[in-house]
Amino acid sequence: MNSPLDFRKEDAAEARDSFGASFDRRNENRFRSVCRIARVTRASDSGLWRVRNISDKGMMLVTNVALAGGEPVEIALSEDTQVGGRVVWADKGLCGVAFSEPIDVVATLTSLAEQQQAESYRALRLPVEVEAIITTNTGSQAIDLVDISQNGAGFRSSVSLEMGALVDLLLPQDELRRPALVRWARGLCGGLWFTRPIPPTELESMAKWKSATTLSK
What is the CATH number of domain 4-116? Predict the structure, then answer.
């Protein structure tokens, strides 16, 4: 079986050309969606990847994660809209995914737009179980992150934090302190809102965070 690197070098160009050709058929709807983020779940990892384009039969995503040809993936375009598929090609920071079953892309994008306008809409989050460091005006302490998105994170803490407090968050394998606001707090649980969103490229893979947390213990 080819390794992810072998697949990228030897097979990606041909697979990409074939995939692109299927996207260009006149009888298939094709849409470009450069601003949408998807949560991609694989056998041993999950992350937020940017959608480049989408059709009835597949999509192209932006990611630098190493992938193998034929690898199955589950893709959430929102918490209510998920599709399954497999990796057809991966090369130069892009990958093509063929859906297991065709979708109605017009209806799907219409539904996604309606969901995003609803008051209850919530950006896609990644479930995590990692230790991070939070700094307040009284000092620093470890907290457990339970989920994270570009805009915020849920946490558990050994001490209660005050709602509205300004803090700095230090993520695993990171040297950048990220300003955040304690948006809500109930007991030892709470939620953070980042004053500056995290770029999706930094949330492409949660596996590296798990490894960092394991090694630090």
Answer: 2.40.10.220
